[in-house]
């Protein structure tokens, strides 16, 4: 199944489209969605077509900052039930951790990761659609929405030290600078917000410690029992694979050693959760390929190295087995925003 988003993600779309002279119903139909879908808050819709909708709307309206304008129409409640818990987290670090751990409750295509080093924190974001889809407007929306969430939780005039975008620079970067501040940079290796690590300790202004017991209890009611723990454990294995792939140290022995486990222990752990080491490696490579390919800063040779392949030809063979197309064709399709129903991840093809 392709990743989905909640219709809350497109809050304000129809009104913004009309204000720019567009026909929202016609544009939605063009990407095989319906205007009536947007009238039902919380309904799941496929993420790829939604991303194409934003790109198509921006192009037809001649409005490069369409995603930023969409984000301005959102409120904290756009996150759905998770917003109730989020506003009572004690500090920004806890809030970012909550958004990251439970991202699939509101957006199955979105991934957030908090990294810290040398007194600096980075909240990195990326999207995985499971098909070639444009991501510039969608990531603009995510970045501006994330900024809005932090401002709602911490301080209305909060700004990051810098805002990094993998996308090419727009013709007029003014709207991005007005929103994120002077530290906006484009054509970077990642998309995300950079801030001093100490700011992660900033208190959430809406937090009430006396309510935290109840909000945590509420959180357990909206998450399947044990689901977050299982997902966290598998995510740790996938993260270890991701870190070791560029070093070509992605054998089960090397990954289990990194995790402080024996290979057989890791095998049993994965089997108990319906996974194999091979399936984790293939899924991790597929996610990374989808993240890197649209960014033309990465040559195909570089992408193959980041995914742990000894030669680009091995990467190309694996990619065709997994996606049914070549890396070059995927990159062109993603940049053009074309849909291809057949370009989905194939079942585990073996290690």
Task: Describe this protein's structure.
With 351 residues, this protein is an alpha+beta fold. The chain contains 16 helices and seven strands. Helix 8 (174-180) links the parallel strand 5 and strand 6. Helix 4 packs parallel to helix 7, helix 10 (227-244) crosses helix 13 and helix 11 (252-259) packs across helix 12 (263-272).
Q: Mean pLDDT, rounded to whole units?
A: 88
Number of strands: 7
Instruction: Point out poorly predicted stretches.
Output: 225-230, 338-351
Number of helical stretches of at least 4 residues: 16
Give, in order, the helices and strands: EHHEHHHHEEHEHEEHHHHHHHH
Distance between the termini: 23 Å
Percent of residues in helices comes to 40-55%
- The best one-word shape is globular
Protein structure class: alpha+beta
- Major sheet: arrangement of strands: 3-4-7-5-6
**What about the largest sheet?**
5 strands, mixed
Sheet-strand content, in percent, reads 5-15%
| Rg, alpha carbons | 20 Å
Which structural traits does this protein have?
single chain; 351 residues; alpha+beta; five-stranded mixed β-sheet; 16 helices; globular; disordered C terminus
Present the secondary structure layout.
Layout: E1 4-6, H1 13-19, H2 24-30, E2 44-46, H3 47-61, H4 66-72, H5 82-86, H6 92-101, E3 110-117, E4 120-127, H7 136-153, E5 162-164, H8 174-180, E6 184-185, E7 191-196, H9 212-222, H10 227-244, H11 252-259, H12 263-272, H13 277-292, H14 300-306, H15 312-323, H16 327-336
Parallel strand pairs: 5-6
Antiparallel strand pairs: 1-2, 3-4, 4-7, 5-7
Helix pairs in contact: 2-3, 4-7, 10-11, 10-13, 11-12, 14-15
């Amino acid at each position: 199944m392709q990743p989905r988003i909640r219709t809350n993600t497109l809050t304000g779309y129809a009104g913004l489209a009309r204000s720019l002279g567009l026909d929202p119903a016609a544009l939605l139909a063009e990407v095989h969605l319906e205007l009536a879908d947007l009238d039902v808050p919380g309904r799941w819709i496929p993420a790829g077509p939604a991303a194409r909708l934003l790109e198509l709307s921006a192009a037809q309206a001649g409005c490069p900052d369409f995603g930023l304008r969409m984000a301005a129409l959102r409120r904290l409640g756009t996150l759905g039930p998770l917003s109730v818990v989020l506003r009572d987290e004690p500090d920004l670090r806890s809030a970012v951790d909550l958004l990251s751990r439970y991202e699939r409750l509101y957006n199955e295509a979105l991934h957030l990761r908090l990294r810290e080093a040398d007194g600096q924190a980075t909240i990195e974001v990326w999207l995985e659609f499971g098909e070639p889809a444009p991501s510039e407007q969608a990531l603009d929306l995510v970045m501006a929405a994330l900024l809005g969430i932090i401002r709602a939780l911490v301080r209305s005039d909060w700004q990051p030290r810098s805002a990094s975008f993998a996308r090419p620079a727009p013709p007029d970067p003014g709207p991005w600078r007005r929103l994120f501040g002077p530290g906006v940079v484009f054509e970077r290796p990642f998309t995300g917000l950079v801030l001093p690590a100490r700011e992660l300790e900033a208190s959430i202004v809406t937090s009430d410690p006396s309510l935290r017991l109840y909000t945590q209890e509420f959180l357990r009611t909206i998450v399947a029992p044990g689901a977050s723990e299982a997902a966290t454990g598998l995510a740790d294995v996938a993260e270890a694979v991701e870190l070791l792939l560029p070093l070509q140290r992605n054998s089960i022995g090397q990954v289990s050693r990194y995790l402080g486990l024996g290979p057989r222990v890791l095998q049993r752990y994965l089997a108990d959760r319906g996974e194999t080491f091979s399936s984790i490696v293939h899924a991790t490579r597929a996610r990374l390929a989808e993240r890197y390919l649209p960014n033309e800063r990465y040559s195909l040779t570089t992408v193959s190295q980041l995914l742990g392949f000894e030669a680009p030809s091995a990467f190309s063979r694996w990619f065709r087995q997994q996606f049914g197309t070549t890396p070059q064709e995927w990159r062109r399709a993603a940049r053009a925003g074309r849909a291809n129903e057949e370009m989905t991840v194939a079942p585990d093809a073996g290690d």
